[in-house]
Write a structure and sequence with these properties.
Length: about 100
């Protein structure tokens, strides 16, 4: 089940990535892409509802809104399986990340 991500969790991840940008540039840019999708999802839902011609974009907006939760869950699972090291999961230590 997807949970709503609050801004505090996104801010903790982003702050960690900004602090470690020189040593983790790919993670920094990939999370920027995730945040871009998230913003596009939140900004795009109103035009989708206003214009009947673009109702096909509603699932894309939902996917964009869920992008941070899906990305963090994917990274946490890959980290737990030993396929990928994810150092910034420690920034979410006070919140629950289900694997």
């Amino acid at each position: 089940m997807l949970t709503a991500w609050c801004l505090n969790e996104l801010q903790r991840i982003k702050a960690w990535l900004v602090a470690h940008k020189p040593s983790h540039p790919l993670e920094y840019h990939s999370f920027d892409a995730v945040l871009t999708l998230w913003m596009m999802g939140w900004i795009g839902w109103l035009p989708v509802l206003l214009f009947d011609e673009v109702l096909w974009a509603w699932p894309l907006c939902l996917l964009g809104m869920w992008a941070p939760a899906l990305y963090v869950r994917w990274r946490a699972r890959a980290h737990a399986a030993g396929r990928l090291r994810c150092d910034w999961l420690g920034a979410l230590a006070s919140t629950t990340v289900r694997v």
